[in-house]
Specification:
The complex is a heterodimer.
Chain A: E1 4-13, E2 16-17, H1 19-28, E3 33-35, E4 46-48, H2 68-78, H3 82-93, E5 98-103, H4 109-117, H5 139-147, E6 154-157, H6 163-176, E7 182-189, H7 193-201, E8 222-223, E9 225-232, E10 239-248, H8 261-274, E11 283-285, H9 292-305, E12 311-313, H10 316-319, H11 326-340, E13 342-343, E14 365-366, E15 371-377, E16 382-390
Parallel strand pairs in A: 4-8, 5-6, 5-7, 11-12, 11-15
Antiparallel strand pairs in A: 1-2, 1-9, 1-10, 3-4, 7-9, 10-16, 13-14, 15-16
Chain B: E1 2-4, E2 8-17, H1 23-30, H2 51-56, H3 59-75, E3 84-87, H4 93-105, H5 112-117, H6 122-131, E4 137-141, H7 146-161, E5 165-171, E6 188-196, E7 205-213, H8 227-230, H9 239-246, E8 251-258, E9 261-267
Parallel strand pairs in B: 3-4, 3-5
Antiparallel strand pairs in B: 1-7, 2-6, 2-7, 5-6, 7-9, 8-9
The chains are: A alpha/beta, B alpha+beta.
Amino acid sequence: MRPLAITAYSVCSAAGDGRDATLLALRERRSGLQRNDFGTTPLATWIGRVANLEDQPLPPPLAEWDCRNNRLAWRGLLADGFGNAVAAARERYGSSRVAVVVGTSTSSIGASEDAYRRLEPDGRYPADLRRPIIHTPHSLGDFVQHALGLSGLSVTLATACSSSAKVFAQAERLIRTGIADAAVVGGVDTLCGSVLFGFNSLELVSPDPCRPFDVERRGINLGEAAGFALLEREGPAVARLLGYGESNDAHHMSTPHPEGRGARLALAAALERAQLTPGDIDYINLHGTASQKNDEVEARLVAELFPARTFASSTKGWTGHALGAAGIVEAAISLLALEHGLLPGTLNSQTLDSVCGPQIRRDNKERATRTALSFSFGFGGSNCVLAFGRAA
Amino acid sequence: MNTQLPTVVAEGVAFWASRLPGWDVARAVIRGEQAAPENAAARPAPALLGPTERRRAPDTVAIALEVAARACAAAGRSPSELPAVFASTHGDLAISDYMCATLVATPALISPIKFHNSVHNAAAGYWSIGTACHAPYTAISAFHHTFGAGLLEAAVQMACEQQPVLYVAFDVEAKGALATMAPSRGLLGVALVLAPAASARPGGRHLTLRIDADEPCEATPSRSAAASLVADNALAPCLPLLEALAADEPTTLQLTLGERTALNIQVGRA
């Protein structure tokens, strides 16, 4: 495919607020994980929590969308001058020509959970939460569009953990067909009872800080994050989107295909669109959730398909698993790797599982990087692989 | 500003609503050829699921799989080869109500199956498993503009890859307190197979899609006897397109993609 210019991007997670803070945390190997203190009856696990969202309501003109998820979205839009870059694109192309395609897994369900905790005696929502837009999945896309003053297409994509990777594919198609001249892509997910207790019910939550690809890994740590990227046909690019591949496992709702069949199809499609081979890939940001199954399947795939010089890692030890926002957070970390030549290793992991090949690294490395892949695999068997290249 | 898309051919049409259970009856009611059934039908039981799964399946999965399978059959296309776009305004409102209520009462007792069925792509996931389809699916929402946004995404995928795409849209009945914020009654599902004009099977309806931006816009109102039967479902904005497909004559209608962005659709002769 014809590559797209990424002219701006932002990221905000437990590891850091903005690109500089994120890069510093990666370089200094400072994890954003902490003991779970979310909610009134916290499970014994670790989480990637973004500080002070509770104390920072949205500005009054955006009060209708106020909730934890949209507060984190707002922080992501303010970070790294992203909102200003979109404002300039809006001036260049017109407000209807900049599409919004954002991903989330649970959107602002946390606000609905809060309402159920505080229902009035007659069963109605408390007055402050009687705002329909925050109790529907498109809460995120609608908020982002209004916050950025855009008026064209706005869509929320929700395919669990592949959501904010697949937004790049949908946006590329909108630009290719002339429906949009530019697109704001990204994703936001926030901590809420549904995901903490839901993953707990599946016995996928680790009582310790998560250790991706470690032989003694015990499951995931949930995290929250926001990230955005601005895609255009041309422009002063910080990096380029070279390709994407989408597929699904057609296997199980919450367990990956044992041979990673869908993941392989997505990888092959991404490499074909990018006109790359595995030997061309300098860095892979793996899905690496620290669940038993995901890491086993993913490690096998990498060991089999990539040369030893490819540097692969999971950065979940910094951020936790941000679910529907994982795709954009890890896309942003891949872009940082291309820009700064910093390849983050795999934090917290001591002894890598024997299924890991030499590609999967624990330690960071500084090395000029031209091409990067980001893997995102989710519930419902939905897979997406993104291919990025350094700005020419 | 207007943007034209390549012509798409709607090869197979499927529809299911609690008061209009199937495209044949819905089409006849829209055309004024028969009265609507007096009572609501029992929810569909998709053949794709085994007997136990069929019983346990959430409403979203039951309605989506039913219309998806019927659209593929009507189009004569193998489901295992079609990329798919799934669209739902609110997703599974009954499971969201269950999750919120259980978190208040007994959070540690959340059902793992209900949790993994709570994702917006649950219906898409079950469809891909049931049909052994590895082609990509997506699952989207755009609040009041969901049906138009999903149709557009399916047409865009078809245009980009030059291959047929399955489009499935559905919304289900809201439960509990959430129903006051995300109202939706009954089950409503629509599915279409969209194929490129150059390779479409004969008998499909040609759809010419155009996006009209930068002017305040309204959707074409639905006028048939079917309108009042689905008006309280969140997917009701789909009906003007179904009314156009039920008529033999060519017609033009408009769906909304936003407050100032419309999807204009010319439907060709039957």
